[in-house]
Amino acid sequence: MRDIQVSAITETVARLSQEANYYLPEDVLDALKKARRDEEAPRAQKVLDMILRNSEIAEEKQIALCQDTGTTVLFLEMGQDVHLVGGDLPSALAEGVRQGYKEGFLRNSLVAQPFSSRINTGDNTPPIVHTDIVSGEGLKITILPKGGGCENMSRLSILRPGDGKKGIIDFTLRTIEESGGNPCPPLIVGVGVGGTAEHVMHMAKKSLLRKVGEHNPDQEVADLEEELLGLVNASGIGPQAWGGRSTALAVNIETHPTHITSLPVGVNLQCHSARSKTAEL
Amino acid sequence: MIKNITTPLTDEALADLNVGDEVLLTGVIYTARDAAHRRVLEAVKQGEEPPIDLKGQIIYYTGPTPPRPGQIIGSAGPTTAYRMDPFTPKMLDLGTKAIVGKGGRSKEVRDAFVSHKAVYFGAIGGSGALLSGSIKKVDIVAYEDLGTEAIRRLEVEDFPVIVVNDIYGNDLLEQGRAEWKRAVPS
Q1: What is the spatial distance between Cα A58 and Cα A14, in angstroms, rounded to a whole number?
Q2: Once rounded to an integer, what is the mean pLDDT over residues A126-141?
C-alpha cells in the first residue's frame, strides 16, 4: 500500500493543464511536419506551415495553442494499492484544473446549465474524469483538453451485425465528410467498435491518446485503420477543408466484445491541435 | 496574389474579392460569437439599437484566452461558424459586410452573402497564438459580463484570412474538395 497526498494530484493537474495547452506532443508535431512534406495542394501547404508556426509561437510566448482550451478531460490509471490521503479525489482534480487554467491564462469554456442560462462556471471546472483501477501502486494522470469544434462532430451509431466492416467504414467516412472544416482538420480520428452505447464512445475518445503512427496490436484492426486513413485522405477535404491531401494524421480504432444483436460504432474527432500530456505520480 | 484590405470595407473592395483569394486585413473588426449574437438580435427585436453600429463592419467569431500581464490579448483564433448560421442573415440585414470564422456555412447563409453582397473569410482554426500577433489594440465595447464572449473592438494589422464565400456565390470548401478528391476503387 502506498499513500499519495491529494495535494500532489492537484499540483500535477495544474501543471499538465498549462503544458498541454502550450506544447504539442512530439508525435503530433512530427505527424504535422510529415503531412506538410507529403501535401500536394499549395493552399494546404500554407495552412500546415501556419499551424506549425503557431506551435512555435505558443511555446515561445507561453500562450495557448488555440483559444479553445477545451473541456478538461482527465484519464486516471490508479493502482489498487494506492491510498489517497489529505482530501477527496474529485475536489483535488477540480482544484488542479482551477489553478492551472487561472495561472496559465487559459480560457474558461464551460457553462453550468447547458440549455437555458448557460452561465460560465468561471474556472473551467468540473473536469470530466475517467478512472481505471489497475494493479500495483502507481497513479498515472493524462489530460486531454478537448476543444468544442471537434467534440461537437462526435457521432454514435448502433449498426446491424451484418453491416460489418463496410458499415464501419461508411459511417466513419460520412461523419468526417459531413463535419467538413468544423473539427479543424487535419484530424486524428478516434473510432470505437463494439461494447455498448456508452462504452463505444469512451473507446473512441480514449483511442485519441494513442501516439500518432502506433497501430492497434490486432493486425485485422490495424489493417482497417490503414484502409480508413487512405480513404479519409482521398476525400479531398484537406486542412481546414479548403482542399488537399492531409485530412487526417491517423485513424485509431479500439474494439471490445459486444452483444450478439449489436455492432456499435462511435467516432470522436480530434483537431490538429491534438493536446494531451501524461504524468506519473 | 495577396490582397491588402483596409477597413472600412467598400463595395468595390468586396467586389474585387474572389473565392480562394488570400487577404490581409488592416483596421477595425469586432468580435462576437454565440451569446453576443443572441443578445444583439434580442435587443433589435425589442426595438433597441444594437450596441455597435454594424453598417459596413467585419465580425470575427472568436473568444480569446485572457492576456498575460503586459499583453493585450491571449490566443484568438476563429471558432466554428455554422453555430452562428441561424443569426447571420439578420446580422447582414443590420449592415455587416464581412465575417471571419472557420468551417462551412449553410446554403441559406451562403445565399444571404450573395444577396447582401457580403463576404465570408476563413481564418485558420487552431492558430490563435499566431493570429493574436496581428491584433494591436483591444477594447471591450459591449456585454462585458459575457467574459470571453463579450463584444471586443480589435484593431488589426495584416490579419491573414482567405475568401471562403465571395459575393458571387462561390464556396471554397466545395471547390477545394472537388479539386483534390481522389478516386478510390470500390
Answers
A1: 18
A2: 98
Evaluate whether residue A30 is within a structural domain: no
Query: CATH no. for residue A230?
Result: 3.30.1330
Cβ separation A240–B102 shorter than 8 A: yes
Q: Has this prediction a pTM greater than 0.80?
A: yes
pLDDT for the residue numbered B184: 79
* Chain B residues within an 8 Å CB radius of A243: 172, 175-180
Query: What DSSP string describes A28-95?
Result: HHHHHHHHHHH---HHHHHHHHHHHHHHHHHHHHT--SSS---EEEEEEEEETTEEEESS-HHHHHHH
In a domain, A39, yes or no: no
Task: Provide the pLDDT for residue A236.
Answer: 98
> Does residue B186 register a pLDDT over 80?
no
Catalytic residue list contains B37: yes
Which residues on A lie below 8 Å from B75 (Cβ)? Answer: 58, 63-67, 107
**In this predicted model, what pLDDT tens digit does every residue of B22-36 receive, in sequence order?**
999 999 999 999 999
What ipTM was assigned to the predicted interfaces of this complex?
Answer: 0.96
- Please state the domain count of chain A: 2
What value does the CA radius of gyration of chain B take, rounded to a whole number of Å?
16
**CB distance A67–B103 less than 8 Å?**
no
Domain membership of residue B186 (yes or no) is: no
Query: Would you place residue B185 in the very low, low, confident or very high pLDDT band (cuts 50, 70, 90)?
Result: low
Q: What values do phi and psi take at B78, rounded to 5?
A: -80, 150
C-alpha distance from A184 to closest chain B C-alpha (Å): 6
